[in-house]
Amino acid sequence: MARVVRLGAVAAGAVGALIAARRVRRAGGPGKTGPTWLGVTVLAPPDRIAAGGELPEPLRALGDAVEVRMQPAPGDRGTEVYARLRDDGQGSGTAARLTGRDRMGPLRQALREAKSLVETGEVLRTDAVETTHPGPRGRLIAALDERAQKAGRL
Amino acid sequence: MRALCWEGVNSLAVRDVPDPGIRNDQDVVLKVRASAACGSDLHLLGGYIPFMQAGDVMGHEFIGEVVEVGKGVRKRKVGERVVVSSFVGCGRCWYCTHDLWSLCDNTNTNPVHTQALWGYEPGACFGYSHAMGGLAGSHAEYVRVPFADFGSFVVPDGVDDLAAVFASDAGPTGWMGADLGGVSPGDVVAVWGAGAVGQVAARAATLLGAERVVVVDRYGYRLEQAEKHMGVEALDYTTTDVGAALREMTGGRGPDVCIEAVGMEAHSDGPGFVYDQAKQQLGMQTDRPTAVREAIHACRKGGSVFILGVFAAVVDKFPLGAIINKGLTVRGAQMHGQRYIPGLLDRIAAGELPTRHFATHPMPLDEGPEGYRIFKEKVDGCVRPVFRP
Ligand SMILES: NC(=O)c1ccc[n+]([C@@H]2O[C@H](COP(=O)([O-])OP(=O)(O)OC[C@H]3O[C@@H](n4cnc5c(N)ncnc54)[C@H](O)[C@@H]3O)[C@@H](O)[C@H]2O)c1
Ligand SMILES: [Zn+2]
Ligand SMILES: [Zn+2]
């Protein structure tokens, strides 16, 4: 059953642009179709996440392909930031999701990077370690590393 | 620069690798002064944590001198002598701000493996495989330290490198076991494992007010260290029935807090060992939980068990029934270094927490593979090799 997501009173004028985006119909729950929301919780108030009404660069860069909404997280946890592709296209299997090869890959990466930028001011870059002689397992690890930010459970 | 690299299961080599540099504004680069091997490295070496790639630099327990400072760093200056938390925390996510630093949301750049294994990823740890963020380790001439304002701590002048280095990882780990295990005045505390981690846990229990503390292991030289340096009692599980001895020490109640500092490669004398080892080698279980089982069994009703030993995934014959029926609290964690390091440095400086004796084998980096051999085989009285690049 689709339901209207109720929004808490989080938004001040600065994020007015987001309010409309937040009042969306959500098709969720078992057996329902429609784009899935991916969420991260950011330890910051909404007006820092969308300073001057602008979303953090990694999310902004995805442009109209995504919609974003925010709501306060319970307790002292900050703000829940959700994003989804406007057009979900074909659903994707677990293997594609785990390896970041599904269509949600860029969205996962953008959410993680946006969170890190807001919270810490940077996106950590890992060390570029060259492998000496990759075996099959080494090659698998390298392939997964390359898409790590797009993959996983988010 | 020279670095000690993982080359394959039970294979290490010292090789030339590119020097690290600043990759993020909040990084510093250290010239490594001392870098200790840790029991956790043995799990990587043995291939029990299958996310290492040939060429990865090992090492996560270290002290060094700041030689380069990123432009976003506020607290560090070139020339400072600092000890660094093995787990990297951003300092500003919900977990870091709640002193749960090893759970940092923003440092593990490769969350996919551990999300699949555990549901969510922990933070990053230096030199601890691609599943823990893929950061290069400290067994090298130089190491890059991200979020250095939060993870590096100036070492007091009077504390030498070989004592201070253990404030990086073994110290906070052991202290956390006693602290989060809930040790309080009057408790009897039993610690499994007399390595550096177990010895610190035992000493921490005493300092937190425990009435009686006993360490369990099979290596006489380690048990002697625990008695001599940490002032606690010792039990050799190869010559003593540990459960009976603990009951005898506690009027039949059992220890109030049991701390496990052994990990996934636990050894045992009993017939179960062959079974556990066979299952582990056949991939039917990833870990050998011998000491965890014993700790849960020995613990008093309503007591607390803290698991410091590292485990990778699933174990067999886990005594779940004892937990529910005895009303136990079971907890574990990777160490929250940033929470404990300042206090530990003070205690080391004040002589309350001896650590220097863990560095049984200081040696040049080039001898790294041999250092790991004696550490793994527990020969020549080795507690920890410490490399001095
Ligand atoms: N949680 C963390 O953040 C963290 C940090 C550092 C180390 N660790 C883990 O702590 C554990 C101990 O580290 P360490 O550096 O002291 O290792 P270590 O290898 O030096 O010591 C382990 C000790 O356990 C003993 N042991 C083996 N089987 C036993 C048994 N059945 N009963 C009692 N003792 C037994 C060994 O004889 C050895 O002395 C390792 O698993 C390591 O991975 C965890
Ligand atoms: Zn360690
Ligand atoms: Zn953090």
Automatic annotation (TrEMBL), chain A:
Highest taxon, organism lineage: Bacteria
Species for this entry: Pseudonocardia humida
Protein name: Uncharacterized protein
InterPro entries: START-like_dom_sf
Lineage: Bacteria, Bacillati, Actinomycetota, Actinomycetes, Pseudonocardiales
From TrEMBL, chain B:
Domain Alcohol dehydrogenase-like N-terminal, first and last residues per copy: 25-147
Oxidoreductase found in the keyword field: yes
Metal-binding in keyword set: yes
Span of domain Alcohol dehydrogenase-like C-terminal: 196-265
InterPro entries, per the entry: ADH-like_C (IPR013149), ADH-like_N (IPR013154), ADH_Zn_CS (IPR002328), GroES-like_sf (IPR011032), NAD(P)-bd_dom_sf (IPR036291)
Stretches assigned to coiled coil: none
SUPFAM superfamilies tied to this protein: GroES-like (SSF50129), NAD(P)-binding Rossmann-fold domains (SSF51735)
Gene3D superfamilies: Medium-chain alcohol dehydrogenases, catalytic domain (3.90.180.10), NAD(P)-binding Rossmann-like Domain (3.40.50.720)
Superkingdom of the source species: Bacteria
Cofactor needs: Zn(2+)
Record keywords, A-Z: Metal-binding, Oxidoreductase, Zinc
Recorded family membership: Belongs to the zinc-containing alcohol dehydrogenase family.
Protein name as it appears in the record: Glutathione-dependent formaldehyde dehydrogenase
Lineage of the organism: Bacteria, Bacillati, Actinomycetota, Actinomycetes, Pseudonocardiales
